[in-house]
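Bench log. Compound arrived from synthesis this morning; before running ITC I wanted a structural hypothesis for how magnesium ion sits in the protein. Inputs:
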Amino acid sequence: MTVDRASEVRLVLGNYVEPHHGRPLADVKAVKSVRLAGDRVVAEIELGFPADRYGPVLADTLSGLVSAVPGLGPVDVRVGWSVAAHAGAGRVQPLPGIANVIAVASGKGGVGKSTTAVNLALALALEGARVGLLDADIYGPSQPRMMGLVGERPTTRDGRRLEPPVAYGVRVMSIGFLIEEEQPMVWRGPMVTQALTQLLGDTNWGELDYLVVDMPPGTGDIQLTLTQRVPVSGAVIVTTPQDIALLDARKGLRMFQKVAVPVLGVVENMSTHVCSRCGHAEPVFGEGGGDRMAAQYGVALLGRLPLDIRIREQVDGGRPSVVADPDGPIGRAYLEMARRTAAGLAQVDAVRGAAAAPPVITVEDT
Ligand SMILES: Nc1ncnc2c1ncn2[C@@H]1O[C@H](COP(=O)(O)OP(=O)(O)OP(=O)(O)O)[C@@H](O)[C@H]1O
Ligand SMILES: [Mg+2]
């Protein structure tokens, strides 16, 4: 009788469709244990993505579900999490100490890639993960400003490796720390990839659950080489709903698919404009583009961020929305997006099992 109660609880928990995974907890093997302790049922859930803030919310939801079934309660649901490592595709060596590399990319510039990358990194950190942020946009480094680190210089302890400046718990490395802000970068492609792989390898990141890489905009040689040199575990494509931007974003998507880097999904940025006076929301760049693209290519829509002056003011002022207002609608949207991204990454191996071996790459001019 009592054993039955535990297995019934297991069934109820296992059937719950976890919104970030979009799948039942049983499918993602998140129900670790269900046992009886006196007259209570104790259930342990382990998520594959960081959830210091979300965990208690999920625990409440699940307790409510179980308690609603007559005869199953009382129940204690405990939600924990752990992040598994996902090596990059192909022959690239994983970076020591770095469990996952998430590339944030876009087909064209100015769509909010850097804004998305910083808020993603900060959201993962806020949920408890150990996070680094690499600004790979060598021509237009913006992370020092966005992370409030202008004027910082990396130090070195051993004369070999750079110690990354830290903001809001995230370790940041950018070419912007090493050059003057006004200094134009006139490097050619091979020098850029060389500089970047060095910046990546010569930084003392310590132990990281996630390294978020803000990729240079576009899908040319530099981007392609980077995806081959850096062990990327998964990619996030940022797009605006404009059709033209979407065409470019598709190129970004295909670039990662070509090198067998799993695309975790699409973030639709600036999807609606929210008027700061009246609060009216208007789809200035058209509607549903991210949805369509996600459906067409079979990838997830990870999030949808409005065109909102606060996003710009906060990120350009060095205090991105996730830090400035984590519980506001924008902060919550970023946290949600970050959890979906990490949840997608947690499922990558299952997906990758079916993927073909990386093909030989030829570089074409686009
Ligand atoms: N959802 C948003 N609402 C309002 N402003 C935004 C939003 N997203 C980004 N911005 C602003 O738009 C500008 C461009 O964003 P960002 O620098 O993140 O784009 P990017 O794709 O990285 O550009 P680049 O190609 O130059 O690297 C920034 O000033 C940023 O603050
Ligand atoms: Mg940028």
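What the model suggests: The two ends are 67 Å apart (CA to CA). Residues 113-114, 137, 140, 142 surround magnesium ion (ligand 2) (CB under 6 Å).
ITC booked for Thursday regardless.
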